[in-house]
Amino acid sequence: MSYFERRSLFGVIHTIVATILFYILYLSPKLIGQTEVDLKSWGLAFITYLGILIATRILVIIIHTIIEGIIVYGKDKESYASFYKEDERYKKIDIKASNAIGSSISIGFLTAMIMLAFGSPILHLFYVMFAAIIIAGILTDLLIIYYHQRGIK
User: Fold this and answer.
1) Which of 87-91, 96-100, 106-110 has the lowest mean pLDDT?
2) In the chain, which end has fewer C-beta atoms inside a 10 angstrom radius, N or C?
3) Contact criterion met (CB below 8 Å) for 51 and 43
4) Is the pTM of this model over 0.85?
5) Residue 132 CA, distance from chain mean position
6) Calpha distance 95→106 (Å, rounded)
């Protein structure tokens, strides 16, 4: 596995763990099971979740890069400089995988709007949007791993 594949694997694990912890520690005690929808609380939950996800993702990438650097630098000091280099192939993979973010969130939003149009409560909109954000994060990292292993056309 290359550095970028391992970084994406850490990204998948991070998204799953951060989401489970956010659900257990924040979302479940405050918002799940409400009889009335408090839009302010749900808006705050979205902002909090995205902030936590971004901040912890940055920390995970920094920690992973430090650990990889120590391991690679300890084994082969000459290849250390080229280890983290992003080439054209990586940029193409990143662009192709990044399309999954927009697509997943768009499909989630469209699904939520269709559910609302057919009479679902507004609370389901928030559930679907959270699911779309989670799927987008996991799918993007899985696509990066897939394209690194199978190649990109």
Assistant:
1) 87-91
2) C
3) no
4) no
5) 10
6) 17
